[in-house]
Amino acid sequence: MARSLVIKVTAGADAPERCNQAFTVAAAAVASGVPVSLWLTGESSWFALPGRAKEFELPHAVPLPDLLEAILAGGRVTLCTQCAARREITVDDVIDGVRIAGAPTFVEEATAEGVQALVY
């Protein structure tokens, strides 16, 4: 059975290295052919909006828009329902390809057979 990876990223510009690590691992997994589901929660929720990834800067790191594009091209990106609501983000606001879903969906993905889950 093929292994898959579920990554929950809680950090954004408030913890740039931790944020970038999550996106880098997700993009590397996608490039390696691993099925990936990246969950945007907390401060990373803002990266579900058009143009927000371009505002993120971290020296010596692949630009966040490039990582996000790679993840969207070969994986799944989900914005937490509660995190979206707290920030007044709706499905009409997010980047094409980003879905909004809640804890039951995360639990279903993270506990599926053959899944490795990581939290950043």
- The CATH class name reads Alpha Beta
Largest sheet: 5 strands, parallel
Instruction: Give Rg in angstroms.
Output: 13 Å
In what order do the strands lie side by side in the largest sheet? 4-3-2-1-5
| Silhouette | globular
The CATH homologous superfamily is termed DsrEFH-like
Instruction: Give the termini distance in whole angstroms.
Output: 26 Å
Name the assembly state. single chain
Q: How many domains, in number, for the residues?
A: 1
CATH architecture: 3-Layer(aba) Sandwich
Beta-strand fraction estimate: 15-25%
Can you give a write-up of this model?
This protein has 4 helices and 5 strands. It has 120 residues and is an alpha/beta fold. It has one domain (4-119): 3-Layer(aba) Sandwich (Hypothetical Protein Ychn, Chain: A), CATH 3.40.1260. It is globular. The model has no long low-confidence stretch (mean pLDDT 96).
Provide tags for this entry.
single chain, 120 residues, Hypothetical Protein Ychn, Chain: A, five-stranded parallel beta sheet
Question: How is the secondary structure organized here?
Answer:
Elements: E1 4-9, H1 16-31, E2 36-40, H2 64-74, E3 76-80, H3 81-86, E4 98-101, H4 103-110, E5 115-119
In short:
With 120 residues, the chain is an alpha/beta fold.
